Amino acid sequence: MKTLRLILGDQLNRHHSWFNQVNDDHIYVMFEMRQETDYVKQHIQKVIGFFSAMRHFEKALKSNGHRVIYYRINDKKNTQQLIDNLKKLIEEYQIELFEYLLPDEYRLDKQLRDFCNALDIKTNSCDTEHFYSSRDELRLFFKDSKQFLMERFYRYMRKKHNVLMDGPQPLGGRWNYDKSNRKKWKGQPAVPNPILFENDVSEVLEDIKSAGIETIGHFEGTIFNYPINEEQAIQQLRYFCEYLLQYFGDYQDALHTNEEFLFHSRLSFALNTKIFSPKTVVNEAITYYENHSLEIDISQIEGFVRQILGWREYMRGVYWKEMPGYAQFNKLENQNKLPNFYWTGDTKMNCLAVSIKNSLNNAYAHHIQRLMITGNFALLAQVHPDQVDQWYLGIYIDAIEWVEITNTRGMSQFADGGIIATKPYVSSASYIHKMGNYCENCSYNRTKRTGEDACPFNSLYWNFLNDKKEYLKNNHRMGMMYNLLSKIPTEELKQLKDRAYRIIENPDLF
Ligand code: FAD
Ligand code: SF4
């Protein structure tokens, strides 16, 4: 049967069962499209990364004998719209069966479902064979529960997939070593230079420019350093195991002006485009740990596995359970605008300047920069979650809605009212100082709450607690903070709030 098989840009799984056999009746299609580059303004490196990885994938399929139709962004036949491209090809090749891999974005899922319902040929959707869990697994797991605790799902996944287990018990006797994952990095141990790939992307870059795609962020020259095929992704993973894994857990929450990546793996782009699978990553890291268990503490490997087998699978499950409603949540009723400095890094607040510049330069920031610097400030400044989402979705190379929105709207902005996080991730300067050195070279005084040189995070923090009291006061994890808030003298609270509102009204002056 003449079959058209669609592969989206984040479905680059070379080991998918679709590719087990070569069949001339199977035509694979891949499109670079304005529909995808323009629905939010994207970082230039994100567009380069996706197009480059897709072009590599096309080549790999063709060299294995598969029949592939690939539309580059400037190809004449390319309508720039998914459905129009598909309709034309179905007609031109007299297709009898249309098949697609289940998208990981609700928007595309709906578009393809609607398209198939309107088609008068046979259609079929297939799993991407990438994740550990199915789309519905989390929903079924929590079907009788009021709370969806990540830790419960993570333990279930560990047992189900026999990962870091000693029979029915967790290896090492504990499920979670989160408490030992909180060291401040003070220059030692030395962070090795990151592994870089010499990918010449001049052709892709030229195509992006001549298509006139508007992007954000920076990219110098023509050499692109992220892995764009499976071989490179495996090299990056091995590099991580050999040089970074031994410190991963310890410094997971650390922040430092001199180190953009610290001991983080930078595997998220290769994972989210499905260039390789979470099973490959977890299995390789565990094998490395088992062969080096005298040098690597269990807390390091457990911390790493928890991110992938725990958080990553959990976020996807929550996404499919809660969408499309999740994208509308704004339980704290925040309405403010995202400051302009999010697009430039031009602010005197050093922690924000460093984290935003990292993001603009690399299309990357590590988790604590995303959560406790940019995310923290946006929440304290009571920015509308739609604006926060748009920024995160555009700026990071790994941002695909299923994992971006759950982390941003849920974990970081508490806009879901506590489905993902049990309390808002907000802090004053004291946490930022505890975990890093940003405050040492800042124009503001981290210890002051009022006065012109007081750290903006401090006044914003107490103001936020005060403004959101009705919503948060019964959250038992916030009890201690509300107790402290109640002890601030009225006059001082007034000064704090005045300063907070001056910042909120004019954040770009700070
Ligand atoms: P490492 O720190 O080395 O972790 C290893 C892997 O674990 C990552 O590659 C990632 O696949 C997984 N992982 C770690 N934390 C999470 C998490 N919270 N949720 C899901 N997977 C996780 N991650 C994305 O992949 N895409 C996003 O768009 C995204 N947006 C985020 C927005 C906010 C506000 C926050 C707080 C976090 C976001 N994250 C996102 C999660 C996390 O920050 C990134 O996965 C991580 O920084 C990627 O860098 P890394 O590969 O070096 O990760
Ligand atoms: Fe950020 Fe405040 Fe520290 Fe400056 S003093 S780096 S603004 S937390």
What is the subunit organization of this protein? single chain
Please indicate the percent range of residues in DSSP E strands (runs of 2 or more): 5-15%
Can you tell me the residue ranges where pLDDT is under 50 for at least 5 consecutive residues?
none
* Count of runs of 4 or more consecutive helical residues: 20
Biggest sheet: strands side by side, in what order? 4-2-1-5-6
Radius of gyration: 24 Å
Secondary-structure class:
alpha/beta
Give the tally of β-strands. 11
Small molecules (ligands, ions, cofactors) in the structure = flavin-adenine dinucleotide, iron/sulfur cluster
Distance between the termini: 64 Å
State the shape: globular
CATH topology of the largest domain: Serine Threonine Protein Phosphatase 5, Tetratricopeptide repeat
Please estimate the helix content.
Answer: 40-55%
Residue-averaged pLDDT: 97
Overall tally of structural domains: 3
Largest sheet: 5 strands, parallel
> What is the class of the largest domain in the CATH system?
Mainly Alpha
CATH architecture call of the largest domain: Alpha Horseshoe
